[in-house]
Amino acid sequence: MLGPLYQQVVERMNLESKGILLANLLKDCAAYTESGNINGADIALYHLSRLASPNGDPLQRVATYFTEALAYCQVAKNLRGVPKVLRLVKTISTLEQEFVRQQFFNLYPFLKIAYLITNQAIIEAMQGEIAINVLDLSPSSDAFQWIRLMQGLKEHSPNTPCMKITITAIHEKKEVLEQMELLLGAEAKRLDFYFQFNPVVSNLESLDPEKLPIKRGEPLAISCVLQLHSLLATADDDMVKMRALSPFSPCPSHKMECFLNGLWKLQPRVLVITEQESNVNGPSLTERVYKALDFYGTLFDCLEASTSRTLVERSLMEKMLLGEEIKNIVACEGVERKERHEKLVTWIPRLELAGFGRVPISPYGIWLASKLLQSYVPRYHIHQKHKCLFICWDKIPLFSVSAWKF
């Protein structure tokens, strides 16, 4: 174990050396865990527990949640009943979920840009229409996005008499949808819109797009922000079968394939998708830890450059949102692993196979996004590729926004 001499050496290390040691310990621990070396993983976890800190520098903070996830892996792998009894994977209340998602919105520019680009794509696709439908597949069902859309539609068509907008929103909690309906109804009344709200209490996995209460014949826009990847979750046996049948298929999840086909049958005028630009959906635990550490380490770096370490909202968001995502990526398998991020280069053939064609992100939307970023630290920027938009930190793409049509 950690002897006095070793501890003295660690204490004399500079920040960069400690960071390298932390990263190496995390990778070693993942490799030990995957190979079944319980003793090696235990020693690495002990070292990590002394170096990681939820209140320290970015790598110490992110390492805290990877350490917890790897510790959970050890328990889950060797004592199958314990995780369920102790509820090691936490579930948080609806109120807590909405709070930490709001903090993610406040502390980063990612969702603001995603909403802005999505709304602009919808406005341009619906030019000249007096009745439109919007299907919101996002996990937060954020009223803010659709309030801004209604305001944008009013600005672009100020003389259109009583425009009709129908929003169909999906959420697992009825109370979230009820609050959303109140906020949107009040704004629609202020703007003199004819407004209809269709609440659908469901998760994405249980949803059949063709059975949604969407009026056929009216133009439809679909928005999905940081949610579509959850449909890649599948039983390990099913994944093996799909890979065996078609090892080069861009859609190894039957659930995803059916869902995208269902969306295509709705014939949307525009479908806008925002996803994490990371690749943590591999079967190897060690590889997932490597890639997730790169992605989440960068997210923690973003906060360090713009937000105080002592800000309570930052700590809560890191722990209850980012930390839980890390735990899901690292410690869960099969259908329980919902955070299966994949890069846009994988999503493109998957969506094209379903029948969708790419729509270029508009120059005006890009200009609006660039203007919005001016209020943030200059290391954020946007980058265009494949007719899509990437939101980057330095030169690292973190999120992609892509638009598609029927």
From TrEMBL:
Pfam families: GRAS. Residues 331-405 are annotated as: SAW. Residues 179-211 are annotated as: Leucine repeat II (LRII). Coiled coil: none annotated. A motif (LXXLL motif) lies at residues 228-232. It is found in: Nucleus. Keywords: Nucleus, Transcription, Transcription regulation. The keyword Metal-binding does not apply. Belongs to the GRAS family. GO terms for cellular component: nucleus. Its main location: nucleus. This is Scarecrow-like protein 3.
